[in-house]
Amino acid sequence: MVETLLLIGIVASVFVGVNIGGSSTGITWGPSVGAGIVKKTTAAAVMTVFVFLGGITVGQNVMETLSEGIITTDLTLAAGVAVLFFIGLGILVANIFGVPVPTSMTTVGAIAGLGLATGTLNYVTMAEIITWWIVTPIIGFWVGGVIGRYLYPAVNQRVDIKKSEGPLLILDRQGTVPTPAFGPNTTWRELGTTTVVLIIGCYMAFSAGASNVPNAAAPLVGEAGLEVTNAVIIATIAIGIGGFTIARRTMDSVGGELSDIPLLAALFVMVTASSITTALSYIGIPISLVMATVMTIVGIGWGRATRPITFREAVSRDSEGEDREIELGAIVTEEQKDEPTPPIGEAETEEVLHGSDLFNPQAVIKYVSMWIIGPSMSTILAYGFFVLVPGVT
């Protein structure tokens, strides 16, 4: 009976992992694949390796919080399987609404529902986690805002990330031993920028592993029956499968968020979101890469769009009588390489002011709403289940 239940739990863990791999691989490598810097198969393979590294190192801190910190008793195997069911249900609802609900928040909600039903919820830990859930979007937004207003335009004028025709590197077979050589159109500049893009992608994959591997692995760790290493391996394999299958489509679209902005802006987003997620994972806080990513995009868009007005005007919306509106979506436009960036408070070119509508308040409201609804629903459903079926715990 125990072996059968553990097998069901592993199947549920794989289901969760595959779906996580499909979404996180797209967010991590979509911009690079779209720019032609890496191929989808290569992206999925590299993603799998660094997800494992993130999960087996920093991710163990998050796993400890999920399996031992949120409730004052260890998760039983039956309870772990039930929690995985609610995580999978949360992913399904997210897919139906087309919104990437943070899996970490759904996982915490399901475990919290168990704690409420059994009277074992650790309120101090939950208060700390929820506090960081509130603070993280604010951090992402303001870091993105600073980048958009003060850093991105200047860097964009000096850095040109483009993929030339033909392979980046080839094997020179003229000598006794084949050696790597530049492709027919490769330059040192292109090699350098491509290397930076790949390093940032690996960093984001590591961050995704640190935050997401515990979601698929933690409910089966400890008393539930699996050793940490085995659970991480199973979750990594599942996430890798999602990267090689489902993510092939998501890497083309990336949900519409990252694919519509320049690669350089996407790299700023990736570094910021990964740093926030990795730092919080290190201290054991279950946090979502999606949350930090979305709010950093919004922040860069806001900062980019408010450059024609001063910071005081941007915050207060007081333009001292001048008709200077905050234009939405300015992040998608490129600085003119042969023109200096106008100082803060001066109008920019028409091309900069009228970009695509990326910074969409309605879209932001939709995301934030689902971030609240998703964990709330998983908590309520899990609570109801564990109250009605107390024998599971």
Characterization of the model:
- It contains 14 helices and 2 strands.
- α2 (40-56) crosses α7 (188-217).
- The two termini are 16 Å apart.
- 50% of the residues are buried.
- The chain has a two-stranded antiparallel sheet with strand order 1-2.
- The chain has one domain (2-392).
- By secondary structure, the chain is mostly helical.
- It has helices spanning 2-34, 40-56, 59-69, 77-97, 103-118, 123-158, 188-217, 228-244, 247-253, 263-282, 289-305, 311-316, 350-353, 361-388; strands at 169-172, 179-182.
- A hairpin with a 6-residue loop joins β1 (169-172) and β2.
- It is 67% helix and 2% strand.
Give the tags.
mainly alpha, two-stranded antiparallel ribbon, 2 strands, 393 residues
Topology:
Elements: H1 2-34, H2 40-56, H3 59-69, H4 77-97, H5 103-118, H6 123-158, E1 169-172, E2 179-182, H7 188-217, H8 228-244, H9 247-253, H10 263-282, H11 289-305, H12 311-316, H13 350-353, H14 361-388
Antiparallel strand pairs: 1-2
Query: How does the helix and strand content classify structurally?
Result: mainly alpha
What sort of overall outline do the alpha carbons produce when their principal axes are compared? globular
Question: What helical percentage do the residues reach?
Answer: 55-70%
Q: Biggest sheet: strands, sense, closure? A: 2 strands, antiparallel
Strand order of the largest sheet: 1-2
Q: Bin the strand percentage.
A: under 5%
Q: Mean pLDDT across all residues, rounded?
A: 79
What is the succession of H and E elements? HHHHHHEEHHHHHHHH
How many domains, in number, for the residues? 1
Output the number of helix runs: 14
Radius of gyration: 23 Å
